[in-house]
Structures are given as structure tokens and as C-alpha cells.
What we know:
- The chain has helices at about 5-50, 75-85, 130-140, 200-215, and strands at about 55, 70, 90, 95-100, 105-110, 115-120, 150, 155-160, 165-175, 180-185, 190-195, 220-235, 240-250, 255-260, 265.
- It has 4 helices and 15 strands.
- The chain is about 30% helix and about 35% strand.
- Strands 3-4-5-6-10-9-8-7 form an 8-stranded antiparallel β-sheet. Strands 1, 2, 11, 12, 13, 14 and 15 form a 7-stranded mixed β-sheet that branches.
- The termini are far apart.
- The protein is of the alpha+beta class.
- A hairpin with a 2-residue loop joins strand 7 and strand 8.
Amino acid sequence: MSTAKIKNLILAALVLINVFFLIDVLWEKIGEAAERRQITENLTAIMEKGGIELHSGAIGEIRGPAAQSTVRDPFGEATIARAVLGDCELVESGTRARYESGLGEATFNTRGEFVITARKELAASDGEPARYAKRLLRAMKLDASEPVATGSNTATAVCEYRGTAVFNCVITFEFDGEGLVTVSGRRPSGVSEAPDVATRDLPTLLLGFLSLVRDGGADCTSISSVEAGYRLSVGAFGDGSLSPGWRVETDVGAFFLDAVTGAIETAE
Length: 268
């Protein structure tokens, strides 16, 4: 057999392998879509019988993200401070870190919280705080949602880990007529996968929420959205976790359903 024929056979085999792989992926996606539809229909019927309307399209992801561990990251703190204040100096360390420059001051604590205050206005937002905040987030090396203007002089963004929202980590950018005056918020740092953490699924958590409502723990009659994401919890020394779960938006406010502990808490 000639070399050309052998090459053609190899190419044909590779094409067939790719075709079978694509078919397998397609069937998997079809199966996931069917599973999601069935779970959604069952949950909708159960919640309705319990007196809670689950709006059409309310449920996003059926499967939650994996649990993660976090640690304090001094390098990340320095990166954030320098992105806003330029060449700055670490003047205090420990449970509270503080950076200073001619432009202002930045402080960080073990819970992942920080405040950066300008002594004089930094670069102007040109009337578009969300666009300026997006550029600054890139410089700060922070993964976050698209910033949203919450007023003529304010923009906010929700932190993310690998594209998944960390609901209680929000960065706020405040401006005055001259420029940026304050950046503050909370963010996860030093994230790594937490080994062997058992989690509850969405149906179990929603049934727990239904029980809470029926027992008088919340006066809820409708659910408008159910979004998978994380909640950051940090100890006194900076070690913490990203607990997976779902944020449930209802007619009486938002709740976080913790997939690790099963706890149902008012969302921040």
C-alpha cells in the first residue's frame, strides 16, 4: 500500500473518530436538556402545590459548582492597590494591611474586604462609571461580572470565580464630578478546589425552602429566578471557603440556599 493511501486512511479514521465524539457530546447535551426539563417540571408542580409559583424560566443551572477553599493573598492585595494608587508603599501589615501613595490609601483585612480612598480625584469617568470600572477591574486582576451603573456617580460589579458569581462579593466604584474617589468591596482570593466536600442538589434545597415557607419562616408566594453560584465565608486568619449553592429571588427578597450545609439564609 502506498504512503498516500495510508495517509488517506489515517485521515478518514480521524474524521470518523471526531464524528463519533461530536455525536457523543450531542447526545450528552440532549440528555442533560431532557433531565433539566423534567426536574424543572417536577419542581414547578411541587412548589405550586405548596403555594409557591415558580416562574417559567426561573431555574438556570440544575447542577451547582464544586466547593472551593480560599486563603489570603498579599500579592493580590498589592496588585489591587497599585492598579488604583500607582506606585504605593506597604506601611502596615498583619491582619490589616495598608498601602499609601501620593494619590491615596488602601486597606485590606483578613475577610477579603478592602477600601481604597483617593486623597485627590483619580482619572475621570467621563460620565460613564461602568466603562471606567470595567477597565479598572482588569488592571486590578479581578474576575467580575459586567459593571453596572447604579447612579450617575456609582458602578458595581459582582465578583466571579471561573465565570460563576460569588454573590456576597461586590465591588463598588464611587465618583464625584471630578473623578474616582473610592473603590471598596470584598473579593475571594487564593482559590483552590476543596477535596471531598459533599453537596446537596437543587431539588433537595428547594424542597427545604418550601418547608421553611410552610412552617412560617418566610412569607413567599413566588420565585422569579434560581441562580447557581457561591458565597464567601472567611475565618479570623484569612482561611475560608466558597460554598456552592443557589440564590433564590422571591417576592419577599433574595435567599441563599447553601449546598454544603443546607442552610437557608437571607442573601446579602
